[in-house]
Amino acid sequence: MSISRRNFLYKSTAGAVAAVSISSIVSACVSEPKQGKASIFAKGNTVLFQGDSITDAGRDKQNETPNRAWSFGNGYALLAASHLLNVLPEHELTIYNRGISGNKVFQLADRWDKDCLDLNPQVLSILIGVNDYWHKRNGNYDGTVEIYENDYRALLKRTQEALPGVKLVLCEPFYVLETSAVDETWIEPMQEYQAAAKRISDDFETIWVPFQQVFDEAVKHAPGTYWTPDGVHPSMAGAQLMAEAWLKAVGE
Fold first, then answer.
1. CATH topology for the 3-250 domain
2. What is the pTM of this model?
3. Which end of the chain is more exposed for a tag (fewer CB within 10 A), N or C?
4. pLDDT tens-place string over residues 16-54
């Protein structure tokens, strides 16, 4: 066998293992959706991704056209939205990304009319919480987990009152150890924020995306820095992992 062919087969095999690994990680961590095989998406639905820099992912905020790559950045929201548009063309979905880097819950609330309610989404996905802790940790914010939970609940109540019937997808804020910005001192305080987010999800009966569990499983297969160099912002592999977890949680 030639060296070039052997290298090709090796690379192909390695790629297959990686693909199976990501799929198995997601399968081990994300439950089947409550609605079973019924899609949460209907024809003509508007879908909105909201959150902080993880959702923002460098999107073009001067051109926020739905269903366009430049308005989605280079993160999980782009990958998940692309998948939906690919597999559900007959649904004619309108998909937006309105994540903004650095946001905490109260900053979502400040812009909620323009960046959520006015868009009238039928499906709303939110990933928020890491900055509510991280900015407190570095001294740039004096919030608490109680403020986070109360503000988050108020935001969802406001949303449901304005948009009856909206389907909510709440994503777990996460961290990954042994990376450039995250160490063991993150564990206990972040777990409090995660527990608050899960309580909110349960009380509002939302779809839940267990990102912490997904990344905890992922680091058994590759180092934390492979999935997220700083422990918060995902790499390309981490973004794909998140997108697949999100899609499984919503049943797609």
1. Rossmann fold (3.40.50)
2. 0.89
3. N
4. 334 446 777 887 788 776 656 678 999 999 999 999 999
